[in-house]
Amino acid sequence: MQWKIASASEIVSALDFDKFIAYDSEFVRGHFYSAKLALVQLRQAGAEVLLCDPETSPLQEFWRHLLLISAPLVVHSGEQDLELIFRLAGDLPQRIADCQIAFAFLSLTRKISYADLCKKILSVEIDKTQCRSDWLSRPLSSEQLQYAAVDVFYLAEIFPILLDKLRALGRLHYFYEENENLRQTVMSRIDKKEHWFNLQNAVQMPYKFRAMAEALLQLRDIAAKKSDIHRSKLLSDGQIWQLARSYPDDIFSALALLDEKNPILNELVLAEEIFTSARENLPNRPRNTALNRKQKARLARLEEFISRRSLELQIAQLLLANKNDKRQFVLAEDEQARSKCRLLQGWRAEIFAEFDFYSRFNSK
Hints:
DNA polymerase, domain 1; alpha/beta; 18 helices
């Protein structure tokens, strides 16, 4: 395996943007508001691995070219990698190809690790000891660079193999449609606001505490983003509970309990306005509609159907349908609701179209 460290301009010159690019990145979350990119790894079939350090080579030129790629950007379990690309580039490439999703269309395993995928497809054992190393320290060690190169080297070998298997089974359109779903999901989640009902044990929170909890969450997010510190480092969910319980009607008394160096105190000018807005426009906690007896029976038949079809097709059950998909399907009793049901859209519609026949046949 060959690899080299390259600048962004060297990468742009070396890559053929009409052919698929295997992509991986090393990043650090932990202390920061959002993940910090530490290294970008790239490879095309038959070529050496290119490693780019964003600390020494700004990536703006590379991002511009990447967004114009006509071939797929190949990742593995790439949701967090894609989120970081979206934050830094402002968009995502038009075509994504996640090898973890590909394998889920070929097996009963929804989330195979990269190491297990390499072993399964290529009979290669890879060393993951550098996974938790400090990727923001400089210089990066030769062991770290070798580890990073391996992460993308085999990805470029595995992707064509998985693609051939999907093509042979007629599931290539399933695969690319599901990757578009992933792409849309990543873009919709960026900077999604937290609300009081996202707190742990929120269902137990008395109504009179909720507006204060909501205001503290919004102030925490503003301060964390400005200071680039992880939200929980400024104010934990447990502390929000305590402050809301101690001063449910007085935002300034609640904030007075914080350490004087807490960046949230820099937002005092916004505090009263945010608290007033929280009291007047407190968001409601999403509630799951309770299933009646008939719907519970339909759900049981649906779960049996999914289990059977998963085994027959050798497609992971969780890829076919997750918990929310099942509830949505069972509750979709009119045309408008059915039109929004994920199990009746795209590639899933081809599989679940036969459920009504199966349900009638197995309802006794």
